[in-house]
What we know:
In chain A, strand 1 (64-69), helix 5 (75-90) and strand 2 form a beta-alpha-beta unit. Chain A folds into 3 domains: 7-50, no CATH class; 64-162 and 302-331, Rossmann fold; 164-299, 3-Layer(aba) Sandwich (Rossmann fold), CATH 3.40.50.2300. By secondary structure, chain A is an alpha/beta fold. Helices cover 44% and strands 16% of the residues of chain A. The first copy, chain A, contains 12 helices and 12 strands. Chain B binds a DNA duplex through residues 5-8, 16-20, 22-23, 25-26, 30-32, 35, 50-51, 53-59.
Amino acid sequence: MTKIKNMEEFASLSGISRPTVSKYFHDPDSVRPTTRARIEEALERFDYRPNIYAVNQNRKLTKNIGIVVPYLADPFFVEIARYLEQSCISAGYRPSLFSSHGEQKLENEILDGLQSMKPAGVLLAPLGRISDRSAIEKFCANVPTVLFDSNLDGLGAAFVGSDNFSFVSQTVEYMTRTGEPPSFFEMRTPANPNANKRRKAYVEIMERLGFEPHIIKVDGKGWAFEEIGHKGAMKVLAERQLRTNSVLCSNDRLAIGFLAACYEQGIRVGRKDDCTLRVASNDGHPFAKFTCPSLTTAAHDYDNVAGRSVETLFELIENGGKFDSRSETLFPARLVLRDSA
Amino acid sequence: MTKIKNMEEFASLSGISRPTVSKYFHDPDSVRPTTRARIEEALERFDYRPNIYAVNQNRKLTKNIGIVVPYLADPFFVEIARYLEQSCISAGYRPSLFSSHGEQKLENEILDGLQSMKPAGVLLAPLGRISDRSAIEKFCANVPTVLFDSNLDGLGAAFVGSDNFSFVSQTVEYMTRTGEPPSFFEMRTPANPNANKRRKAYVEIMERLGFEPHIIKVDGKGWAFEEIGHKGAMKVLAERQLRTNSVLCSNDRLAIGFLAACYEQGIRVGRKDDCTLRVASNDGHPFAKFTCPSLTTAAHDYDNVAGRSVETLFELIENGGKFDSRSETLFPARLVLRDSA
DNA sequence: ATATTAACTTTACGCGCGTCAAGATTTTTA
DNA sequence: TAAAAATCTTGACGCGCGTAAAGTTAATAT
């Protein structure tokens, strides 16, 4: 098996002209079945593939797709990313995964590097509050971008995410119906815009149900939500800030910290008779099944959010990178009942 | 601010010849300070950067570095990956992160795609037992590769990882000294070669200490370790397979499942008087702090493993992609005492 | 000041592939 | 079976940049 230098050499070895071979690699169906067979036969005998750099050099757009998430240490984003990657590959694209790791500087650098990759499109889950809005705006002007998970008003050609109202309405309604109305446990300055929408939804639903909203804000910044939830919960429990036996955490990672604190304080969480507290949450974190007790949570519709995101991006790409109007697609949550509430 | 097409145009705008500008981008220190200043001045006025595809087309090797991990949903690998990425960027490389998601097919595809990227080097944490050894061997013959975390005998130019013996000796010794000798809880067919080394270390240390090793193997395949640990623990607890009040889990993710099962069964875990079981583990998983109870574990020396991995890769690259002999660097674990044992 | 060296400019070629035009060949249609 | 259509081959140019050679200018050494 000889090493093949370039398409010229491969073409002559396969007995097909180079322009036709080039055409084949661009779209195997664009050549006659017989010639396709001859090329693929040669492809099996020799180990050749086009130089991706030469291929992409002249193309206005490549077959690359960028996937950017704010924080890969959160398994939620890994799940989504995995699905997105797979979908891109199936559609013949080359996905590249990036994590902003919670830092604005990194998010900007990633977008910067992405631009020079001339990607066909980008799936971006922005950091949110701490995103550099103008940087993202500039990026979106140059690259077909679909935002997901976290919406930034007006940015990107479209947004696909979850309906935060649906999360909170289900959890609050459930907790209230089967027990007492929950307090809302969240970070004082949430990194993610979804958090704000969840708080607003909580207030609205509580009022609608005739209860007084009770929001507990805990300090802490960054993306170490478990730690923040844990510390905050220790304080909340010590100072007896809870008004009822119910708590709704803004997200699962906070809840993981909250439950750890409860355990340490000897507070039994759940709906059994010997329990003094019920804790529910939002997101459907992969680990929520293994907390103690297992966590009742309103789960993202992962599959639909991820699926619709890529679909939208593909439409966007086929549409030349522009939509007439910016669409926002929201999927409702699925309430997962476990032991914690 | 005009859009600049190519280096030619940028060169004339900056008043420097194109070859010199090219030299500058290759290494800013290779040009005279005065010309460097003029170029960088122009760089601020105009928004130009070399076309990465044209740049890489002729280069035998690019400035790309591939980082491949077996399973990104495990925050352990995310932590490492983050460190590796940062180190590569600091050294002027462009890292690309890939996850095999526990699948051999994907690992092969990733390596396949990586080859056509002509990377300067690759940091590979292989799947382990289910890796396609011949595929990786072939890959390593073409690309300078440093293996980390999971060793495959003889593959790659070097290996950097953790000393599994050190993990288990510390946990077993600690548990035995402060209580009863532990049983060893693991998967029947572990995906990762580290698991086998840990089992062997357990047997050796137990015998050295004069105790009879007791290994509990639980069924389950894939990378859903928490689920497997949970199911396995339920069975173990129901059938009272434990001989002492001590369990050492092969890794933290199994332990997370084990602790969840204990909680459900009402078994109090820890070293307090009212506890009937002690559970320890290995890895230093980021979530180990938030299990109930918090998990005593022998932690990877993340920083050193990651740091040494990139250092080794850089040496390898500077050395032309080949080492005289394959080195294996192992870092000892750090015992983290928490509440579970 | 002159010789030496370092850095720069100009000119030009090559990389591997996309793509176009013109002509030859094959396949399809009537 | 001939004409029309589709596909192929041949030949050639261009993309943006790396890089080499030869000559020029600037910095450093003597």
